[in-house]
């Protein structure tokens, strides 16, 4: 196809509202877009052209977003794998009970009650944190299981019995050692938005000796700034 014929067909397609990419595809010619722009500079585009272009842009943006999500997911997976690889040796270090005591003390320092006397009290809505706390408490110390108590703090529309069974499974504390659940009065008449929310699980362990020791460990290993 000679240049004149090519230009004629290109302008006809442009008048129909075709994009430059569509013109290249239909003519099966890799005509530079700068050339197409020059050939079609005086053409009045159809009224529907802008709407059609906006739709194409939105579709392309959606495709790009989906691709970006997949790419980021792959990158994150590789990053997590690299973190796991270079820190796997810590599982052996963690088996040392002294290391476990430090981890337990730091966890309690961040999440536990600092003002209770005679007992430990830690509450959280994250099952992982509660499970880790119970594991460390049992691993590092020969605790008396009968001194453990569990209290749930939940929303008014939640099924308390199901929550108690869930947290009993997480903590390995029997239901007979659960105090009566506390319902947040502010949630009455307000449906829960997060369906996977399991409320807050509070663990009490009655031992003043253990309470003092766990609270003192951070002070022993780190004196803190001198004022």
Model description:
Strands 1-4-2-3 form a 4-stranded mixed beta sheet. By secondary structure, the chain is α+β, with helices and mostly antiparallel strands. It has helices spanning about 5-15, 20-25, 35-40, 50-85, 90-95, 95-110, 125-140, 160-170, 210-220, and strands at about 120-125, 150-155, 180-185, 200-205. Helix content is about 55%, strand content about 10%. The chain has 2 domains: about 5-45; about 95-220, no CATH class.
Topology (elements, then pairings):
Layout: H1 3-15, H2 20-27, H3 33-39, H4 49-87, H5 90-94, H6 97-111, E1 120-124, H7 127-140, E2 148-154, H8 160-171, E3 182-183, E4 200-205, H9 208-221
Parallel strand pairs: 2-3
Antiparallel strand pairs: 1-4, 2-4
Helix pairs in contact: 1-2, 6-7, 6-9
- The poorly predicted ranges are none
The percentage helix is 55-70%
Number of helices: 9
Q: What is the count of distinct domains? A: 2
Key terms for this structure?
single chain, 227 residues, 9% strand, alpha+beta, 9 helices, 2 domains
Short description:
Helix 6 packs across helix 9. By secondary structure, the chain is α+β, with helices and mostly antiparallel strands.
